[in-house]
Recover the amino acids of this structure.
């Protein structure tokens, strides 16, 4: 563990001084989807619809650009989430800090109600990768709202996971950098236009099907496909019996 992680862990875990009330509040923030991705997904759809009534040619161009950004933000999030899972699987294993015997005294006693096996590597934080990619897309459409999206990602998604020992600070920092990089690469104008074009054409031709699928995908991204993972785990368990 680097000195960077050691100093930040001591600073962050000391914030609540292991107060049961503070720890309970952080647990709630970590477990509630509204404190994770729900708000950010809602902001993406705000970006999509905020110029819905635009009529002028220049306004129509702005609306088209922002809808491209929304499509690419979701694509960036999916790629970031998949990349985070692949990196965690193929890179050298890193035990969650809460399971490190020499660090356990630093962390409050908490009960996290999510899938967190000891075999799932801590590096990088897939939460940080996914939501930093989404926050970057929001920032490209609206700097003030995007600034909030980044603060939301850092303070309500990344920081609580460090406080509870789910990740090292470097796990979250690396996840943010990777998510930001993926979003920026896909938002290069030629890439963004080519990637978004078929989805925008489909939305124009089949709006009902498009928005039904978009709703389902937004839900799955918000929950980070938790139910599908549980379903896959259950099916695998049934087959192995």
């Amino acid at each position: 563990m680097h000195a960077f992680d050691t100093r930040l862990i001591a600073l962050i875990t000391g914030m609540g001084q292991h107060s049961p009330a503070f720890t309970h509040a952080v647990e709630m923030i970590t477990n509630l989807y509204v404190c994770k991705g729900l708000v950010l997904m809602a902001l993406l759809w705000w970006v999509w619809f905020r110029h819905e009534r635009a009529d002028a040619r220049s306004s129509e161009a702005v609306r088209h650009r922002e809808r491209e950004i929304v499509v690419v933000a979701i694509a960036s999030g999916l790629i970031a989430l998949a990349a985070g899972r692949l990196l965690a699987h193929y890179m050298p294993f890193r035990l969650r800090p809460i399971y490190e015997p020499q660090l356990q005294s630093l962390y409050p006693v908490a009960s996290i109600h999510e899938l967190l096996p000891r075999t799932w590597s801590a590096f990088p934080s897939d939460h940080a990768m996914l939501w930093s990619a989404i926050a970057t897309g929001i920032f490209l459409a609206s700097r003030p709202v995007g600034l909030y999206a980044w603060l939301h990602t850092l303070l309500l998604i990344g920081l609580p996971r460090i406080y509870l020992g789910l990740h090292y600070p470097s796990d979250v920092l690396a996840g943010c950098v990777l998510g930001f990089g993926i979003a920026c690469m896909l938002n290069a104008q030629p890439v963004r236009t080519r990637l978004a074009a078929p989805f925008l054409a489909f939305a124009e031709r089949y709006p009902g099907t498009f928005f039904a699928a978009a709703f389902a995908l937004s839900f799955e991204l918000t929950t980070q496909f938790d139910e599908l993972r549980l379903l896959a785990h259950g099916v695998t368990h049934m087959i192995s019996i």
Q: What stands out?
A: The chain has one domain: 16-110+118-240. The chain has a mean pLDDT of 84.
